């Protein structure tokens, strides 16, 4: 009886010790990741302003705004170690570099529908890179180039493209009408 009691006490303390060391290692790796993000982003656009960790009061609100399927909003579901709502390209670059360095899985959200939970559920430690703010569209007809950011939707792209094409078409029509008027005036002067 005494041996089983001693064994139970040793098991309890061993479990407690392992739990404390795991939590400490997890916190230090998260702190290292945060330091990495800070050091790899531009000081003029601090990344700390767009980071949400479980210690932030708004973390739960931000996280729940992404979850489209409530079955993934349970206490047993693994939560991201942090949410990064990028505002600058340097924030995205820092996230990529630091996730590689620290071996942390990155899940990317861009505001779309994710009812399967692909962007906010994982079996391994992860963080969310939210790219909601990247939705610009830049069309250059002259260079035959279009830059479309991740959050832009197809309707916005086609509208911008049509606007550029219509501007060129109306410019060409103006040039055609002006040329016809000039030819007509030249013909009138000759006759």
Topology:
Blueprint: H1 2-39, E1 51-52, H2 59-66, E2 83-85, H3 89-102, E3 105-109, E4 126-130, E5 137-140, E6 145-148, H4 154-190
Parallel strand pairs: 2-4, 3-4
Antiparallel strand pairs: 1-2, 5-6
Order of helices and strands: HEHEHEEEEH
| Average pLDDT metric | 76
How would you name the CATH homologous superfamily of the largest domain? Uridine Diphospho-n-acetylenolpyruvylglucosamine Reductase, domain 2
Adjacency order of strands in the biggest sheet: 1-2-4-3
**Topology, number of strands:** 6
Poorly predicted spans: 12-27
Computed structural class? alpha/beta
- First CA to last CA: what distance? 126 Å
What is the strand content? 5-15%
DSSP helical segment count: 4
Notes on the protein architecture:
This protein has 191 residues and is of the alpha/beta class. It contains four helices and six strands. Strand 5 and strand 6 form a beta hairpin. The protein is elongated, with a radius of gyration of 28 Å. The termini are far apart. Its cofactor is FAD. Keywords: Disulfide bond, FAD, Flavoprotein, Glycoprotein, Signal. Residues 1-25 form the signal peptide.
Structure summarized in a few sentences:
With 191 residues, the chain is α/β, with parallel strands linked by helices. It contains four helices and six strands; from the N terminus they run H-E-H-E-H-E-E-E-E-H. It has two domains: 2-134, Uridine Diphospho-n-acetylenolpyruvylglucosamine Reductase, domain 2 (2-Layer Sandwich), CATH 3.30.43; 139-190, no CATH class.
